[in-house]
Amino acid sequence: MKPAAPDPAGRRSFCCMACAALALALLPTSLPAQAPPADPDPRRVTADTRASLKAGTVKDYRKAGGFYLVADGAGIYALTAICTHNGCKVVAEAGQGFGCPCHDSEYDLQGNVVQGPARLPLRHFEVTEQGPGGPLVVDLGKAVDAHVRF
After folding, report:
1. CATH of the domain at 101
2. Which of 14, 27, 88, 131 has the most C-beta neighbours closer than 10 Å?
3. CA 139, 141, 116 angle in degrees (round to 5)?
4. pTM to 2 decimal places
5. What pairs with residue 78 in β-bridges?
6. What is residue 41's predicted lDDT score, i.e. its pLDDT?
7. CA neighbor of 80 nearest in space, from 101, 51, 60
8. What mean pLDDT do residues 140-148 have?
9. Residue 131 phi/psi, 5° resolution?
10. Residue 13 three-state SS
11. DSSP alpha helices (H): ranges in the chain?
């Protein structure tokens, strides 16, 4: 008596089902994360005024909106605290620039890449006053050129 031949349709069906189950198991990790909802008011009022910021000052507003407020000889500017490589928060390094603790990217005080793996500079945001001599306002919804100063 001849032994029963394996059922090719059964094996094929099993392989298809196993592949489908594997694809479904991996699906949630392969989809891009949804972006958080847009902030209805991207403006952040700071505790600083133009008069309170002297050249060389770096103010940390990471908890109040994810940015730094910096004063140099040409004026005041704001730049993101988010590393352009992988989205980690950068840390101010004693007036020398900013560093990313995740993968060691380094930026100068203007947000230009000094050392990778990051390839893009930090974004700059519009800075205005709430009123004459009033608190500075950073608009996280308005990117500006890195040379723009308030």
Report:
1. 2.102.10.10
2. 88
3. 100
4. 0.72
5. 69, 125
6. 78
7. 60
8. 95
9. -170, 170
10. helix
11. 8-30
Residue 141: both structure tokens together: 């919804």
- The answer as to whether 87 is a domain residue is yes
Amino acid identity, position 70: V
* Cα atoms in the Cβ-side hemisphere of radius 13 Å centred on 145: 2
Considering the domain boundaries, does residue 104 fall inside one? yes
| Three-state DSSP class for residue 16 | helix
Q: Residue 77: pLDDT band by 50, 70, 90 thresholds?
A: very high
Confidence of residue 32 (pLDDT cuts 50, 70, 90): very low
What's 123's DSSP letter?
Answer: P
Q: What is the pLDDT of residue 37?
A: 58
Cβ-based burial of 92 (10 A; exposed 0-12, middle 13-18, buried ≥19): middle
> From CA 124, how far away is CA 39, in angstroms rounded?
18
68 φ, ψ (degrees, to nearest 5): -120, 145
Beta carbons of 47 and 63 less than 8 angstroms apart: no
**Residue 9 placed within a domain:** no
